Amino acid sequence: MLKKNVDQTAADYSAGPAVTWDTEVYDTDGFHDTGSDTHRITIPSAVNNKYGIFTSCLSLSSVTSGSSAAAGTNLQSGATTGTWSGHTRNLTGNGQATTSAWIQSTTGPILLATGAIYQCGLFCSDTSITVESESTYGLLVLDTFNETMRVLAKMNAIQTAANYSTPAAIAFDGTDVYDTHAIHDPSSNNTKLIIPSALNNLYVVVWAQVQASSVSSSQANSVAIRKGGSLTYTGMGGNSGNNGSSTEAWMQAQTNVIQVAMGDEFEALYHNADTSVDLQTSTCLGLRVVGS
C-alpha cells in the first residue's frame, strides 16, 4: 500500500498523469521503488501468474467547485494495454457545490505477469488542486484465488455513437478474457452471464466497468448490476455520477456476495444522458466465485 508523505499542493492533473507515491505503508515483495518511477507498481517474479486486485482512494481538496475529476488503475506496459478500472466525479451534485472529493476505484482480479507495470491515473479539470497525503494506492495478491470458476467478458471493438439515454444492457461480443464454465456466450445472449449447474448454490461477486468517451460535458451516467433468470430483475449494485467538463466517463459497480442458483442471469445496465457516446473496449463484466 502506497501513500504520499505530505499533501501534494498546486498540482496539475488536467492531462491525466499517473499519481506519484513517495511512502510505502507496506511492500512485501519490492513492488514499488520510492527513489525512481514512484508512480509504478511493478509485478515481481514471486507473484507471476497469480491474481491481484488494485484499489485506489484519492482524497482531493482545493478544487474549484463544478470541476470534474476521474481516477483509476491502468496498465502501463507488460501485457495488453488498457484501462482496468475508473470512477468519475463532478464536484457539484444534489444542488450543492463542493471543493473536495474522495474518488475510489477497485479492479476485478487481474492475472499478474512478471514485469507488468500498473499505475493510478488521475484527471481533474482544475489545474491547481491538492492531492492529500491520506490518499492511497495498493495491490492485494490473491494467493488462494479460485481460478477454476470465473468469467470476464469484454467488447470486441469500440461501440461508437451508442445511445444509452434509455438504460440498456451492454452487449459483450468479444473473446472472453477467461471463462471457465461457459458462463458467457459472446455470440448468443451476449449481454448475460448465466449461472451453470457447476456453480449452483455457490457464492459469487459480480462487477462491471464502463469507460465512455466522446461524451458531452455535464452528462449524468450510471451503471448497475442486475440479476434475473428465475427471479424478477433486481438491481444488485450500482453507481452514478456526472462527467462535468470531461469528455470521458468512467463508472463501475460491484455486488455484495450473492448465493446463486442454476439459471440466474446477470447483466450490466448502463445509462448516459448523452445520446451518442463511444464505449471503449476496457468496458467489461465479470464474475468470480468466492465460496460454497
Describe this structure in words.
The protein is mainly β and 292 residues long. It is globular and about 55 Å long. The protein has strands at 2-3, 8-11, 23-24, 41-42, 51-61, 68-77, 82-83, 87-90, 92-93, 96-97, 101-106, 110-111, 117-124, 129-131, 136-142, 150-154, 159-162, 168-169, 178-179, 193-194, 203-213, 220-228, 234-242, 249-254, 258-259, 265-272, 277-279, 284-291. Strands 1, 2, 3, 5, 11, 12, 14 and 15 form an eight-stranded antiparallel β-sheet that branches. It has two domains: 2-142, Sandwich (Jelly Rolls); 150-291, Jelly Rolls (Sandwich), CATH 2.60.120.40.
In brief:
The chain has strands spanning 2-3, 8-11, 23-24, 41-42, 51-61, 68-77, 82-83, 87-90, 92-93, 96-97, 101-106, 110-111, 117-124, 129-131, 136-142, 150-154, 159-162, 168-169, 178-179, 193-194, 203-213, 220-228, 234-242, 249-254, 258-259, 265-272, 277-279, 284-291. It starts with a strand and ends with a strand.
Topology of this structure?
Blueprint: E1 2-3, E2 8-11, E3 23-24, E4 41-42, E5 51-61, E6 68-77, E7 82-83, E8 87-90, E9 92-93, E10 96-97, E11 101-106, E12 110-111, E13 117-124, E14 129-131, E15 136-142, E16 150-154, E17 159-162, E18 168-169, E19 178-179, E20 193-194, E21 203-213, E22 220-228, E23 234-242, E24 249-254, E25 258-259, E26 265-272, E27 277-279, E28 284-291
Antiparallel strand pairs: 1-3, 1-15, 2-14, 4-13, 5-11, 5-12, 5-14, 5-15, 6-7, 6-8, 6-13, 9-10, 16-19, 16-28, 17-27, 18-26, 20-26, 21-24, 21-25, 21-27, 21-28, 22-23, 22-26
